[in-house]
Design brief:
By secondary structure, the chain is mainly alpha-helical. It is 53% helix and 0% strand.
């Protein structure tokens, strides 16, 4: 995996799952949490990384039960708290704990926006050549 923003990617799938399970005990399976992490990294790849030069160098094919649990996630430290608040929001939503969901998703959105802004500042967006007639 390539470093993003010049930082080493620090959180792995299993670290995110273990940390959220410790913070918010729940009955959801590891497979469900892996799917939720895959959903988030899929959005990060498509909406942030692929829209900038060098995006093709970052490989992402989704995560499933066959993905090694020590696979590094795409969002680096110090923005990797996104994974915890994302998982927390999914758990709360599916437990019909909507006030907790709202709190978690607001925290997620704040950190995700910070990551997106930092990525945009440090990577040249892809563009199309302007044609003059």
């Amino acid at each position: 995996m390539l470093p993003i923003l010049g930082l080493e990617v620090s959180m792995t799938i299993i670290e995110a799952i273990n940390r959220v399970d410790a913070l918010k005990p729940n009955a959801f399976t590891q497979t469900e949490k892996v799917e939720w992490l895959s959903m988030l990294d899929g959005m990060v790849k498509k909406l942030i990384i692929d829209t900038h030069e060098g995006g093709d160098d970052v490989m992402f094919n989704g995560y499933d039960e066959s993905t090694p649990m020590d696979t590094e996630l795409l969002i680096p430290y110090p923005y990797d708290d996104c994974y915890l608040t994302w998982l927390e929001s999914k758990i709360s939503y599916h437990n019909a704990e909507y006030a907790k969901y709202n709190n978690a998703i607001i925290r997620f959105n704040d950190t995700y926006k910070e990551f997106s802004n930092e990525y945009n500042r440090n990577h040249m967006p892809k563009g199309k050549a302007i044609k003059y007639f």
